[in-house]
Design brief:
Blueprint: H1 3-17, E1 22-26, E2 39-41, E3 46-50, E4 53-57, E5 66-68, E6 76-83, E7 88-94, E8 103-106, E9 114-116, E10 126-132, E11 135-140, E12 143-147, E13 155-156, E14 167-172, E15 177-181, E16 184-188, E17 196-197, E18 209-213, E19 216-220, E20 224-228, E21 236-237, E22 247-253, E23 256-261, E24 264-269, E25 275-279, E26 297-303, E27 306-311, E28 315-321
Antiparallel strand pairs: 1-28, 2-3, 3-4, 4-5, 6-7, 7-8, 8-9, 10-11, 11-12, 12-13, 14-15, 15-16, 16-17, 18-19, 19-20, 20-21, 22-23, 23-24, 24-25, 26-27, 27-28
Length: 324
C-alpha cells in the first residue's frame, strides 16, 4: 500500500467516525444491552421494550437501570408501548394461534399490571396503541378498537375500513385521526366512528407509520409521503435522497424530520434535501471493543436533543456531538 493510499484510507476512516461531528457511544446501566424494541416517553421518563420486558430511564436515555416485570403469557411477545403521566400500556403479539393478544396496563409506573382486552383482540398482534386525551385506540390485525375507560372494555371501529384490514399505526390531532394499514391510509373526523380513504398518490402498499407535526402529515410505507392538512390533495413522495429502500422508523422533532434507514440516519428540514447525520456502518464504538458494523437500527427517539438508538442484538446507544 503506497503513501497516498494510506492517507486516503485514514481520511475515509475519520469521515466515517465523525460525520457531522458526532459519535456513537453505549448508554450506561446494567439493562441497556437488553433494549431492542420500541421507545416512548413522558416528561419525566423514557420507556423501552426489550427481552420481553419494560425498561425505564430517568435521565433521557443516558442510563437504563430499571426493569419492570410484565406478567404476560408464555405465548405472548411484547409488541407496542404507549404511556402518559397516568398510565403505561403495552400490547402483545402471539406465538401460538390458539392464544390471544392483550394489552396490559399499569397505573403505578409499572409496579403492578392489569390485563385488558381478554376475548377482544383474538389471535393477532397489537401493532400500535394510541392515546388521544382520554380515548384509547388499538391498531390490530383485525382493524381498530377503541376504549373510553382505559382498556376495561373495547368497541370495534372499522366502519369504512376494508374487511380484514390489518392496521399498523395511528396519529391525529384535535380534529382528525389517521390510521394506516395493509391497504393504505384512512381518516376520521368523528373519533374513529367512520373512516374514509385518503390514498391519492400512494402506491398499493402498507402504511407502517404516521407522523403529524403542526399541519404537516408524513406517512411511512415502502417510501415516505407528505401532505398538508386537511390532506384532500395528492400525497407527495419525498423519499429521494435516502440511499436505501429499507426505511424502518420516522419521527419529527423541532420541525425537522428524521428517519432511520437500515444503519443510517437522515434528517430533513422543510424543502431541503435529506442529510445523513450518522453513518455507523464501519464504526467501532468509542472507548470500547464493541462494534455495530452493518447492524440495522431497530428504533430511535429524541429526548432533550439527544438521539437514543437501539441496534439489533446490541442494545441502546447515544448519538452525541463529539464535544459531549
Amino acid at each position: 500500500m503506497n503513501f497516498k493510499t494510506i492517507i486516503l484510507t485514514l481520511l475515509l476512516i475519520t469521515f466515517v467516525a465523525t460525520i457531522n461531528g458526532q459519535q456513537i457511544k453505549p448508554c450506561s446501566g446494567k439493562y441497556r444491552k437488553e433494549i431492542n424494541g420500541s421507545f416512548c416517553n413522558t416528561p419525566k421518563e423514557l420507556f423501552a421494550l426489550g427481552n420481553n420486558q419494560l425498561y425505564i430511564s430517568c435521565d433521557n436515555g443516558l442510563s437504563w437501570d430499571k426493569k419492570k416485570y410484565i406478567p404476560i403469557n408464555k405465548t405472548e411477545v411484547l409488541s407496542s408501548i404507549c404511556a402518559n403521566d397516568s398510565v403505561i400500556l403495552v400490547g402483545t403479539q402471539i406465538k401460538d394461534f390458539d392464544d390471544e393478544a392483550h394489552i396490559y396496563r399499569s397505573f403505578d409506573n409499572g409496579d403492578n399490571w392489569q390485563i385488558c382486552g381478554s376475548g377482544v383482540f383474538g389471535s393477532t398482534t397489537v401493532n400500535r396503541i394510541y392515546l388521544k386525551n382520554d380515548t384509547l385506540f388499538s391498531c390490530t390485525g383485525y382493524g381498530v378498537f377503541r376504549s373510553l375507560n382505559w382498556g376495561s372494555s373495547w368497541q370495534k371501529c372499522n366502519s369504512g375500513l376494508p374487511s380484514a384490514n390489518k392496521t399498523f399505526c395511528m396519529a391525529g390531532n384535535d380534529s382528525i385521526l389517521f390510521v394506516g394499514g395493509r391497504y393504505g391510509v384512512y381518516y376520521s373526523k368523528n373519533g374513529g366512528q367512520n373512516w374514509k380513504p385518503c390514498k391519492n398518490g400512494i402506491a398499493k402498499e402498507s402504511i407502517n407509520q404516521i407522523v403529524i407535526n403542526n399541519d404537516d402529515v408524513y406517512l411511512l410505507g415502502k417510501r415516505i409521503y407528505h401532505q398538508k392538512l386537511p390532506c384532500n390533495k395528492v400525497w407527495i413522495d419525498i423519499t429521494q435522497g435516502i440511499q436505501t429502500t429499507f426505511i424502518n422508523h420516522l419521527l419529527c422533532n423541532d420541525d425537522k424530520l428524521y428517519v432511520s434507514a437500515f444503519w443510517q440516519m437522515y434528517q430533513k428540514e422543510g424543502a431541503h434535501n435529506w442529510e445523513i447525520i450518522s453513518l455507523a456502518v464501519n464504526k467501532k464504538i468509542k472507548n470500547t471493543d464493541e462494534s455495530i458494523k452493518g447492524l440495522p437500527i431497530t428504533s430511535f427517539i429524541i429526548t432533550d436533543s439527544t438521539f437514543v438508538v437501539s441496534y439489533s442484538n446490541k442494545g441502546a446507544y447515544l448519538i452525541l456531538d463529539d464535544n459531549d
